[in-house]
Every structure is written in C-alpha cells, then in structure tokens.
Amino acid sequence: MSTSTNPQIYVAIVGVGLVGAELVEQLLAIPKQDTPFKLISLTSSSRTIFDAANPIQPGSQWKEKLAASTEKPDFQLLTRKLAGLVAPGIKVAVVDNTSSDDIAKLYPGWLENGISVVTPNKKAYSGELDLYKRILTASKASGARFLNESTVGAGLPVISTLKELVATGDKVVKVEGVFSGTMSYIFNNFSNGAADGPSFSSVVAEAREKGYTEPHPADDLNGFDVARKLTILTRTISSGSRTPTALPALQSFVSVQTESLIPKPLEGIPTGDEFVSRLPEYDAQFAQLRKDASAEDQVLRFVGVVDVAGGVVKAGLEKYSTSHPFATSLGGSDNIIMFHTERYGARPLIVQGAGAGAAVTAMGVLGDLFKLA
Q: pLDDT for 172-190, tens place per residue?
C-alpha cells in the first residue's frame, strides 16, 4: 500500500510504567495490516533503546530488551534521531507517559523539529503560561501536532469534545464536572443525601487502601489535580475560540480559585500515615457539612467549574440536589463532565465514565496517535 493510504508513523515512548507498558501492549496488539505505527524507541528513567530499522514487534520481549540496554536516556540525541526521520509521508511522534516537568519542557523543541507530541502528562498544559504559548507557536510553525486527550478524564472524550464544540462555532457557556476519580469515590461514599453515614476520615482511609488516592492523601485533597485539569480546559477554550472570551489568562494551575479540603492544622504533615491518623480529629466538621446538605435535600461533591460567561475558573466543594446527575449518575471513581453551550442549551452534553486507570488512559493516548494517521 502507498504511504498516502497507509502512512508510516514512527513512535518513541518515554515512560514505560503502568500507563506506558499498557500503551505498548495496546499498540502492538493492532493487526499488522491495520497499523500505521512503527514503535522504534522506548525510554525509562534509567535506560533507552532506539532502532528505526527494526521496530519492536508483537510478541517481542521488549521489557527484557530495555532492561538489558546499557544506553542512558539522552533527549537531545533522541530529538536529533527522530527529527532525521521526518519526511513527506512519514510522521514522527513522541509519547510522554511521565509526570515530569523536565520532559514537558522539551515539547516546544520536539514540535519545532516536526515531531508530534502525545501525552497524558498534565504539566505542560497546566503549568507556566509561557511554556503553553511556546507549544502553540511551535505546533503552528511546523505543522506537528500536540494531542492531550488523556490529560483530562483519561480515555473519556473530554478534550476532543470541547475542541469540536469550539471549532464548530458553538458558544461554550460553562463546563462543570467531577474531574477527580479520588474525590468522586470519597464523596460518592461519604454523601448520598442522608444526614449521617461513614466518617470522612474512614472513607479517605478506605480510598487510600484501595489505591484511589496518592500515598499521601493530601496530594488529592488539596484540589490541585482538579485545578490542573481546569487550566487545560480553560486554555483549550481560549486558544480555540473565534472571538475573545471573558476567561482569565491563567498563569498556571495555581491561578485557579481552589478550595483545599486539608484542615489547616494538617497542612505540611510529611507522611500519609500520619495524615490519615490525624484526620479523624476533623470528622465532626465534615459531618456537619453533610448534615447541612442533607437538610436541603442535597449532596456534597468536589467539582471543577469553568464559567466562560462569568470569567471564573474554580474548584471546590459544592452542594447539588439529590436528583442532579452528579448525585444520581456517579458510581465508584467515575468522572462526569457537563458541557453547557448555546447549542446544547436546554440540556447539557454529558460525558461520563471511568476517569482513571492504566487501560483507559493508554486507550486515550492510542486514540490520539490514530489522529495522526
């Protein structure tokens, strides 16, 4: 088949942990006659392999090959090698599966060299505004693409839906949702409309035991993960809109109005174990919040809101009617996002489902890679 109907896409994967390893398996599982991808490089925190002439094949022992490599990661060298492969009918992409700020800073250079960037890493798109602007400029200049579906909602079609709404001229009024799987699990179990129930600390401890929280739950309860996702959505709207919006030019996710659920005396506690052991001291105040919500026939949910019309971006604890989708539709650690737009005026467009997990996150990344084909 010709490259016009079956383009070649060389893929280099940086980060082969849970998501990265799952992505490799999903990519190699594509039938040979259907895949445009040639997996030519893998990089872990300590080792790398690169072979454009002999791409990694299904059934190959890639983990063993990477572990046996004596080559250390060298991203300047990787950039030069990948840039040398860019040619008419041949595309090159780097997939960043890390959560590294340092790797994120490499995106403009990759894009300038015609190398597309696909990633679930939120750092570049929610960090300093200057880096984000350089990514936009580099992509526009070279034609290489940056794709980040999995930065919000894992494999859920959140970013792509928002981009299409904006690109087709729909006026986005507000985007709101439960964007954190951790916060979803905690409040689905803590607040169901009843005045009483399990203690807040016990739910957090259970979520930690099940792996829904970070090892230190404060890293979830501070709201920063939601703030990063809101920054990404805000910038997606602002950069794609045909006319200026009232949204603030967020310098970084720190600019988002974010309510932390960490009791002030517990801020700065160094270990997760100590944090969890001290959290019961504040169960009464969370129980009161639940009781007050129940009295109004409402539930508590930690939500993120991008209010385009009002020019406000915020994350925090809010109350919703027990009949609201945020109360009735959520289960486990699901995400749910509502798009209020001019065209979807009567009833919002809703995207819902698993918003975390290696399989769905890798699926979102692979879906982005297919957009390059």
A: 999 999 999 999 999 999 9
Query: What is the reported pLDDT for 4?
Result: 43
- Residue 136 phi/psi, 5-degree rounding, is -60, -45
pLDDT value of residue 1: 35
Asked if residue 90 lies in contact with residue 8, where contact means CB atoms within 8 angstroms, the answer is: yes
Lowest pLDDT segment from 24-33, 210-219, 277-286:
210-219
Give every strand in the sheet of 37-43, ordered side by side.
48-50, 37-43, 8-14, 90-96, 115-118, 146-147
| First and final C-alpha spacing in the chain | 14
CA atoms within 13 A on the CB side of 40: 19
Alpha carbons 22 and 73: distance in angstroms, whole number: 21
Rg (C-alpha) for the chain, rounded Å, is: 22
229 is catalytic: yes
DSSP, collapsed to helix, strand or coil, labels residue 146 as strand
Choosing from 38, 91, 123, 229, which is the catalytic residue?
A: 229
How far is 52 from 40, CA to CA, in rounded Å? 5
pTM above 0.85, yes or no: yes
**What backbone phi and psi angles, to 5 degrees, belong to 220?**
-100, -40
Tokens of 66: 């990477």
| Residue-level pLDDT at 362 | 96
The three-point CA angle 8-154-347 to 5° equals 115
Instruction: Using the Cα atoms of residue 261, residue 266, residue 272 and residue 276 in order, give the sign of their dihedral.
Output: negative
Cα angle value 40/44/48 (rounded, 5°): 45
